[in-house]
From TrEMBL:
It holds the Pfam family FGase. This is N-formylglutamate amidohydrolase. The lineage of its organism: Bacteria, Pseudomonadati, Bacteroidota, Flavobacteriia, Flavobacteriales. It comes from the Bacteria. InterPro entries: N-FG_amidohydro.
Length: 278
């Protein structure tokens, strides 16, 4: 894996070069094994948290891990184009607007013992902005090459905190063109309904059940593209023990193996349906 500046990443995308790189500040990584009309992203996978923030943070490492989306980067790692965040959302949240990306409180609890300095905030927002510079470059290049693309926006959520039965998968469609992409949405739901995992729970996919797809990543890609669909996909944390932090690698690998096959199959059908607009 290379270590590249944002400018170097943008140049490689413009030249349609294949590469696997981490940002020079280690905030995120990008992989392009092949230029295809689909991208997989894990914007809440990150757990990096600057040492200078440790003593000032009122949330423990476990508190932060609990609200992050561990292993989502691993789940998509077999796909040809990936964007994976490495910094914790507790420093800045890539799925929020830049003006709201730095938490003051998090899940009902004060986050900082004393307010962050202007320098700390500016550094965090710079990393947020740099990530989206790369996202925009990908959108432009892939639509230029293929005409229409689909982004798989992969997240996870804590299912035990709900006091009702919730689905293993959730698809948020509130902020996408549901009429235009109705077949693509339904096909992705049907795929998620039949994912096979070594768990006892019934596997099913809800639409706008626990989340509606209100994240900034989806909104940014949608508003900065002409013919791109974003599928905000949540998996409940059946692949770990939410209360202890233990990861179940057999379940993680089962998801990874099936995502590698099913995402490409779904993206292929998406492109066949929408390629007429190239």
């Amino acid at each position: 894996m290379l270590k590249l500046s944002i400018t170097e990443m943008l140049m490689k995308i413009e030249r349609e070069e294949r590469f696997h790189a981490v940002a020079t500040d280690y905030s995120f990584s990008i992989k392009i094994d092949k230029y295809v009309p689909f991208v997989c992203a894990a914007v809440h996978d990150g757990h990096h948290f600057q040492k200078q923030l440790w003593d000032n943070c009122m949330h423990t490492q476990y508190d932060r891990w609990y609200e992050e989306d561990p292993c989502t980067g691993e789940m998509i790692s077999g796909l040809p184009i990936t964007l994976i965040a490495h910094d914790s959302r507790f420093e800045y949240d890539l799925n929020r607007d830049p003006l709201e990306a730095i938490y003051e409180t998090a899940w009902g609890k004060e986050l900082w013992k004393k307010p962050l300095s202007r320098k700390q905030k500016d550094q965090a927002i710079l990393k947020h902005n740099n990530f989206y510079r790369v996202v925009l470059s990908l959108i432009v290049k892939l639509e230029e090459m293929f005409g229409s693309t689909v982004f798989y926006d992969i997240h996870s959520y804590n299912w035990k905190r709900w006091d009702r039965k919730v689905p293993v998968f959730n698809l948020g469609t509130k902020n996408i063109d549901q009429d235009r992409f109705v077949h693509d949405i339904q096909q992705w739901k049907e795929i998620l309904d039949k994912i096979e995992l070594p768990i006892e729970q019934e596997i099913n996919c809800g639409i706008n059940d626990v989340f509606q797809g209100n994240g900034y990543f989806l909104k940014y890609v949608t508003s900065n593209s002409l013919n791109t669909l974003v599928l905000a996909t949540e998996i409940s944390k059946v692949y770990c023990d939410e209360e202890t932090g233990v990861i179940y690698p057999d379940i993680v690998h089962a998801i990874k193996d099936q995502f590698k096959y099913y995402i490409q199959a779904h993206a292929h059908r998406f492109y066949e349906r929408h390629e007429r607009i190239v």
